[in-house]
Each structure stands twice: as structure tokens, then as C-alpha cells.
């Protein structure tokens, strides 16, 4: 059975958030408020340029996530540095049976529609 055909892990209903601002003048509060409103138990936040590969809070967030959890981000541009980076990192989450949700784009890999999208690729 291939990864794409395996059923998703039983969802733990645990939602973990990740937020990022890229300049000192930007404020995290709006992102943090959105993640808390989305039901995130814990939120990790970086104040780093998106082009920087060094995002210690993102690394900590990925280490914190367990099978069945869902990573929630305010928007795709806060999570990935490029489309290729997004595809790779969301794919890695999928292999670990961790869901992914982007609030702004209304993207959710934990829904039947999100699973169907994943199986077509």
C-alpha cells in the first residue's frame, strides 16, 4: 500500500499553531489571535525573514507535533519560503500522519476534500 492510499491517522484534535513575521516592524498579534481562535493549544512564532532557512521556532514546532495532530498556520506565506518548500514540508507532515491547515487559503488536509487532493498528486 502506498502512502497516498493509507488512511489518515486518527485525529487527536490537537491543533498546534505556527506564526511568523519577517521584519521588526510587523506585529504577531493578529496571527496569534487567529491561531488561538482556530483552537490551537500551543503556538510557536518566529521573527525571521521567510528567505532564512534558520527558523528555530518552526523546528521546535515540527519536533513538538505528534501523529494525529494538526499544524495550523495563518497563511501559506507564513509557513513556506517557496512553493517547492511548501510541497516538501507538507509532504513530510503527511508522512508523519500530521494534518495541515492554512486559515487564509482555507486549505485543510484533514478533511475528506483535503485527503482527495493529496491522493490525486
From TrEMBL:
It comes from the Bacteria. The keyword DNA-binding applies. Keywords: DNA integration, DNA recombination, DNA-binding. The active site is at residue 22. Residues 14-121 form the Resolvase/invertase-type recombinase catalytic domain. The keyword DNA-binding applies. PANTHER family: DNA-INVERTASE FROM LAMBDOID PROPHAGE, SERINE RECOMBINASE PINE-RELATED. This is Recombinase family protein. It comes from Nonomuraea marmarensis.
Amino acid at each position: 500500500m502506498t502512502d497516498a492510499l493509507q488512511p489518515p491517522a486518527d485525529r487527536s484534535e490537537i491543533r498546534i499553531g505556527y506564526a511568523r513575521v519577517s521584519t521588526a516592524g510587523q506585529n504577531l498579534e493578529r496571527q496569534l489571535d487567529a491561531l488561538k481562535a482556530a483552537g490551537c493549544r500551543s503556538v510557536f512564532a518566529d521573527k525571521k525573514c521567510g528567505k532564512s532557512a534558520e527558523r528555530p521556532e518552526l523546528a521546535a514546532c515540527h519536533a513538538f507535533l505528534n501523529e494525529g495532530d494538526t499544524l495550523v498556520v495563518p497563511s501559506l506565506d507564513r509557513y513556506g519560503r517557496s512553493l517547492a518548500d511548501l510541497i516538501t514540508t507538507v509532504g513530510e507532515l503527511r508522512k508523519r500522519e500530521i494534518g495541515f491547515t492554512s486559515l487564509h487559503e482555507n486549505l485543510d488536509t484533514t478533511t475528506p476534500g483535503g485527503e482527495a487532493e493529496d491522493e490525486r498528486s
